[in-house]
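Posting this for the archive.
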Amino acid sequence: MIPVSHYLFLSLALFAVGVVGVLTRRNVIIMLMSIELILNAVNINLVAFSRLYGSVDGQVFAIFVIADAAAEAAVGLGIILAFFRNRKTIHADEMDLLKW
């Protein structure tokens, strides 16, 4: 049986890669992918602790996080596609359409 610490280290690595991707990249698609990595790191933690304590609460919550991530990806990609059609760019620095 794999100890929980292995899952936590994997989750920490995924979370760190996701945070670095969000903070350093200016491409909005890569930023969305990094947010997905962060959410997957959270799901690994939820499932690991759910298995540790013998309840299914964390697994059920992880299913809801997966559904939320899918909706976020669909809406986010739709917004990015609409923005690209108007501005011909997907860089976060140039997305100032809603500024006053």
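DSSP finds three helices and no strands in the chain. The domain at 4-93 is CATH 1.10.287.3510 (Helix Hairpins).
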